[in-house]
Structure formats: C-alpha cells, structure tokens
Fold this protein.
Amino acid sequence: MKIYLALLRSETAIMIRDKLTIFFTFLFPIIFIFIFGFLMGDIDQPTARLGFVDETSASAPFPIDILEASGVAEVVDVADRQALETSVRDRNADFGLIWDGRALEFLYNPSAVQENYAYQQIAAGITDAFNLRAQNLKAILPIEKVHVGTEASTRWFNQMVPGIIAFSILSSGLFAVSGHLTAMKQRRTLDRLLVTPMPPVSLLAAVATVRLVIVYASTLITLLASIAIFDLAFSIDWFEYTILVVSSTLGMMGLGTIIALVVRRPSSAGNVANVLAMVMMFLSGIYFPIELMPRFLRDFSLVLPLRHLADGMRYVTGVSDMSPLHFWMIILVLLAAALVLFPVLARYVVRPERS
Amino acid sequence: MIDILHVAKNHLLIALRERVTLFWFLIFPVFLLVLLTLVFGQIGQEGAISFEISFVNLDREPSAWVSGMIESVFDELGTPDAEGKEPLFRIHKPEARQSDEAFLELETLALRRGRRAAVIVIPEGFTGEVQGRFVPIDESEGAPASDQTALLIYHSEGNAASGMAVEIIDQILAGIDREILVQGGQFDPAAAIPGVTTWIGSEEGGATYVDFLLPGIILMGLFTNGLFGVPGSILFSRDQRVLRRYWVTPLTVPRFLAGMAIGHVALSLLQFAILYVIGRFALGATVSFASLAAVLFLLLATATFMAFGFLIASVSKTANTGMAIANILNMPMMFLSGLFFPIAGLPAFIRAIVYVNPVSYLAAGLRAAVGIEASPFSLWLVVGIPLAWIALAAGVAARRLRWDVSR
C-alpha cells in the first residue's frame, strides 16, 4: 500500500507537470465541442433561408404562409432574378424561388453540394402545398408525427457530445499504456523502478488511478461546457455513467497493452495508437451519423470498441436508448479486456528493456 | 546544385520510409476522401441507402381502399428491383400470430434503440376519415381533424436515418395524397403549376460532392504535410544532432533550405497525384486542375503551409513541442476554413478565426480556380493573406529558427 501511495504521488506529479497531456485531456475535447457546436450545432434545426422574387402583379400574390409551413426559416425578399442569383451564389440565401404566375422556379447554388438535398425536399413540399392551395384544396391524408425518444435526443449535436467524450476516453486509455508507459521504457525510468522492490502491479494501479481521476474530471468538464455554451440537455444516470467511464478507461488501457505488445519500438506505439484512434473516430459515428454509411461500413463499425463506447455514453447521458442487457454486456467486455490484459501488461510491458 | 538535390532526395526518402509519415500524408487523406464520398456523396441518390421501417395497417376492412393503396405503395418500395439493388425500405410487418399491439411495442422500442428508422401506423377507420375530408378547403374550415384516425409516423428526432426516412415518407404520402384527390375528381393535374429546378451558372446540377471534396482533401494533405512534415524534419534532425553534421560540410543553410523545399514539393506532388488519381478514376470526380490558376494556387498553398511549418519550428524548443503545437493548430485550422463544412452561418467571433486562417483563402481560391464555386473573397485577399503569412513566417524564422541544439 505504501508503495502504491508513493507511486500514486509521483504519477500525479508527472501528470500535473505534463502540460501537453493536460491540454489534450481537458482542453482538446472542449475545443472540439466548441468548433463542432458552432459548425453543426443547428444542423437539424430549420435554418433554410429562401430568397424570393414575385414577378407577378399584386393581383395574384404568392401565399407566403406556405413557405414557413414547408420548412423555410426565413424568407428574404429580392428585387429581381439577377439579384436573387447573386444572393444565392454568395450564400446570403440558401436557395431561391421565382414566381412568375406560370411556374415555381427554384434556384440552387451548385456548390452547396452538402445542403442541396435538404433544400430540394423543401422545394418539393412548397410545390405540393402551393398546388393544393391553388385548387382550393388541402392535404387529405391526416398525418401525425410522434417522436419516441427522450427530450435530450432531439438534436444531432446532443448525440455528438457523448461521442466526443467517448473518443476522449479512448485516447486517454490507449495513450496511458502506449504513450506513458512506453515513454517510461524509452527513457529507462521503468528499468530503474523495476530494480526497486516495487511490484509492477502497483505501478499499473497508480497509473490507472491517476488516469481514471483525470478522465472522469475531463468528461465532466466537457459535459458541463457543452451544457453551458450550447444549452444542451442531458439526462444522466450517474451510477451507470461512472461505471462506464471507469470500465472503459480500464478497457482502453487494456487495448493499449495490445499495441504496446505488437509494436516493438516504444516510440512507435504512440503513433500507432494515434492512427488507430483516428480511424476509429471516423468509422464509429462520432462526427457523422453511422446510419448514413454504406452497409459494409456500418457492419464493420460493429467490431470497433469506440462504436460501442459511444453508444454506451449516449445511453448513460440519456440521448439514446439501449437495452440494459446490451449496456451491461459492453461493461462486461470492457472489464474483461482490462482483467485479461492487465496481467499481460504487468508481465510483458512493465519489465526491464532488453538492450 | 548536386548538394541541393541530395538534400531534396534525402528529405523525400526519409518521409517515404517513415510508416507514420506515409499514413498521415498519403493514406489518411485517401481514407478520408473515400469515406466522406461514400457517406455524403450518395445522400438522396436512389439505391444508395436503405431504411428499416415498420408498417402496421389496422384499417383492414375490404372497403378500406385508401389504406390498401398506401400499403401497396410501401410494399412496392420495399421490394428489391430486378438488378437486386437494396430497396428504399426494408419493411417489417407483424407476424401471422403476433398481435398488433405486441408488434408495435417491440417496433417502437427498436426505433428508440436505433434499429428502425420509422414506424408507420394506419389506424382503424382511416379510409372513412379520408373520405370524410373530400370537401374544398373553405367548406372544411373549422372541421376538426380527428386525432384518433390520423396516420401515425413514429420517429426519433436525433437519429439521422430516422430524419431522412421521415422526409422521404412525407414525399411519398404527399404523392399518394395527390393521387387520391385526382381519383376523387378534386385535383386537376393538368392545372397543376410545375416546380422547375435551375442551377445557377450550370445546366446539369453543377459539381458532385466528390468534386467539391477533392480540392479540400488535397489542400488538407498539403496542409498536414507542411504543418507536421517541415517542423518534424527540422526539429527531430536538430534534436538528434543530425543537422549539426551538415554544418561541418560545405552545405550552407540557404542551400539546405532549397533542397528541403524541393523535397517537400516533390512529396506534395506525389500526394496530389495519388489523391487526384483516386478521386478521378475510383470515385468519379470530374474536377480538373489543368489550369494555370489551379497550379498557381496549389503552389501558393504548398508554400504557405511550408512557411507555417517553419513558423512552428521557429517557436518550438524541442521536436515534441513542435508536434504538439502542430496538433493543436491542425483541427481548428482545418475545420474553421470551409474545407469540409460551410462556414457562412458561424457567429462573428468564430468567423474572425476563419478570416485570419490562410486555409480559408486557399480553399476558396482553389475551388474558384477549378470552377467549383465562386470565391466569397476578392482575389487580392485570396492571394494576399497567404502571402502575408509567408512573409510573417519567413521573418520569424529568419530571426528565431535555430539550426543547431548548441547554438
């Protein structure tokens, strides 16, 4: 216990002095939240601005109310076609509509390749609504939409924040072994520690404890920042949240062990961990919805631990649902990875470097 | 001249021998290009995406023709075509012995858990309700729509697939709505006002997603190459005392720099060629870089990012610090530049970052030069801001960059 406490003190001091790790653990997720919050925070809110030109006489005015009902957030009145083209080209309006009494002409900016699909859907809705109104009719099929998720699951950005937290846990856990321990090996500090009576498991316990505290604090700060800056709502089950953060940090440290074992050069282990984390990040539905991926990539994502970690984090923060069995299976697998791989770590990674 | 070429060759070979360098400079941009094209390049295209939806028709009277019509339309959309392409919907219906209530409970749970994109329920008496609405708008004012007999679409708002599925279902139901009105003699299709699509400055809908993405990914590749490659090369060589060995040879710093620049340009050229070939021949990009303006912008981008690399090397005491600074700058500079996401709607203080970020101008300039979109910035800014960064970086590097650990 004495040895563990001494190591805990030294590991804490190392962590506090390591400004870079502190930056990447605490500030980097917040930078991500900040950037993506402003870039994509309102991606699923009605933000379409329609530039509108009415070329008819005032005797046949366009029923403006149907524009709003069809999903247009703002109607910008424009003088003529040329001004409308300029407005859409310069993105002062997202798309345009010219009503000349004979046809509804929708103008799109060809370079808005990411958004045009949504604008075309809105345009189709406007055309339908206009034609019904023109013939003195209204939609005959009564339709009601019912959202079945929680209040917190109504925005994509709510789903993204737990994903970013999951990625931060993955990186921190992976780098605890493949970065920190292999760096100790490289600097020969591990060799010096190992000639003392210190059992390797005490060192691992100290490293894991410091990581757990840091990761837990970092996830809380990230959550609080997202709530404070972007007014996001979460419904957090703190017990399951804590269990998930602890087991996933330990599980990811276990995965870091595999990297440290497979990659012989200690200096390369951090690089490999970095590459794997980045690839997983893009394939696990962190920055764009997994449902938009082709089926083979969706199937592939099932073997990625980050996918399940992100799903679990969304579940404990109340933004998506999951069967309790599924959640506890994730916890079980993460803890099993830690339990199986930690002895391996103690035996093969925390040992003197052969020269 | 030979010594310069030797330095260039060494710079290139060292970069190509390093697996990590190869990953970040060559494999990662290709991975991102392919992935983003696969994900975003097919939105809205038929056969590109298939939605799991559940369908329950509780309006089973023989006379329930409206419900039957809706069900048959969805059945048709759930059938694979002759070429075996995935249908638009994979439709789940109650099993023969399963009660509707039990099925609905299971399916709404599946929707909440992301395994379904939507659940459609046609309630009992739906056809009767629809038939009762066959009256012109002014006569039906005030007639209450019965909530009990509305067609229900269960969905999950934060789920992207659910959102897209509901948009498509809306369009399908609008089409059916129109057909019913036509069959009922209420809507005159001949008198319908057409919706016409016009693409500004183009007749065919303009650039595809991969055309939009390719210049951005190429710039991203050049950016990471300059941001990480240049300081990495200088700082690691300096820290490992490799550089000081150069200085005991007749090689001078300017000649070393010239060699390094040639090696860097060669690596950038290789990067460009690989991305272009994959974008063009594997992903179907049609964008062309064969214009003087495009080539000049690519060169300006390479020079700007290389200068950025020198700037980082100048302010970093060690290689690790240099890599950390590059890492910190990398993501914000890339994402706050319009390379991947539109930046028009950003708040003013974030836009300030966009406006000092040289990547914003280079991205806008390159896309304009290859004819993808008009630049929102004037030519003076598009060229001037990157040149200003080059001048700043050169000035700082001239004053601060140390070429040896001991100096």
Observations:
- Residues 49-134 of chain A form one domain.
- The mean pLDDT of chain A is 83.
- Strands of chain A lie at 49-54, 74-77, 95-99, 104-108, 143-147.
